[in-house]
Design a protein that fits this description.
- The protein has about 110 residues and is of the alpha+beta class.
- It contains three helices and six strands.
- The protein has a six-stranded mixed beta sheet.
Length: about 110
């Protein structure tokens, strides 16, 4: 599986709330930016963060484009949320991904609009 295919599989699984498939795309020693200034470093923390996003904001990430910048894969995406009060929001995010073999070893959020 190519890194691009891995990213599509992982993000699609996130959108479908398929936690186990999404986590399978991550390296055991992954570093995952939670978007709130914290770096999560284990699957249990990441899964808890995702569950919170799904419950509180019904978050979905739609990939707009990907390109390589040296060893990093830059992902531009649209984050769509629907809050419990019914309000909806959409914003562009930029994720910088690194890999260990086929698995995502790091994801940082480096830009928000």
């Amino acid at each position: 599986m190519t890194p691009e295919q891995r990213v599509h599989m992982t993000y699609e699984a996130f959108n479908e709330r398929d936690e186990s498939t999404a986590l399978a795309g991550l390296a055991p020693d992954v570093h995952w930016d939670d978007g709130g200034g914290h770096m999560l470093t284990d699957n249990q923390s990441i899964a808890g963060h995702w569950r919170e996003q799904w419950q509180n904001a019904d978050a979905k990430i739609l990939i707009d484009s990907m390109h390589w910048d040296g060893p990093e894969l830059i992902l531009l995406a649209t984050l769509k949320t629907k809050n419990s009060d019914g309000t909806r929001a959409s914003r562009t995010i930029r994720n910088t991904l690194q890999f260990s073999g086929e698995l995502i070893s790091s994801m940082t959020i480096s830009m928000r609009e």
